[in-house]
């Protein structure tokens, strides 16, 4: 399962990081870092990644 991030839409509030810290991070500038950009999220992180998608208040994340 791939998670696609819309970096232009992201507002950097970090709710996805709270839900899935092994999948997402914010860099020092407050910009979203997606550790599995362009590749499938490992199976053991899929559940938390889905929670991050649901938690994003601006719908910047979607399941691919
Ligand atoms: S929850 Fe959404 S808006 Fe907030 S950092 Fe994550 S992707 Fe960006």
Provide a descriptive summary of the structure in words:
This protein has 64 residues and is an alpha+beta fold. The protein has one domain (3-63): Alpha-Beta Plaits (2-Layer Sandwich). It has 2 helices and 4 strands; from the N terminus they run βαββαβ. The strands form 2 sheets. Strands 1-4 form a two-stranded antiparallel ribbon. A two-stranded antiparallel ribbon has the order 2-3. The relative contact order is 0.36. Iron/sulfur cluster (SF4) binds next to helix 1.
* Bound ligands: iron/sulfur cluster
> Mean pLDDT score, rounded?
97
Strand order of the largest sheet: 1-4
H/E element order: EHEEHE
Task: Report a brief summary of the structure.
With about 60 residues, this protein is α+β, with helices and mostly antiparallel strands. The chain has 2 helices and 4 strands; from the N terminus they run βαββαβ.
Helix/strand layout:
Layout lengths: L2 E3 L9 H5 L4 E3 L5 E3 L11 H10 L5 E3 L1
Antiparallel strand pairs: 1-4, 2-3
The protein binds iron/sulfur cluster.
Iron/sulfur cluster binds next to helix 1.
């Amino acid at each position: 399962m791939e998670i696609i991030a819309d970096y232009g839409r992201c507002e950097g509030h970090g709710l996805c990081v709270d839900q899935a810290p092994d999948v997402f991070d914010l860099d020092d500038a407050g910009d979203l870092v997606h550790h599995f950009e362009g590749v499938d999220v490992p199976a053991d992180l899929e559940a938390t990644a889905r929670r991050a998608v649901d938690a994003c208040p601006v719908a910047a994340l979607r399941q691919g």
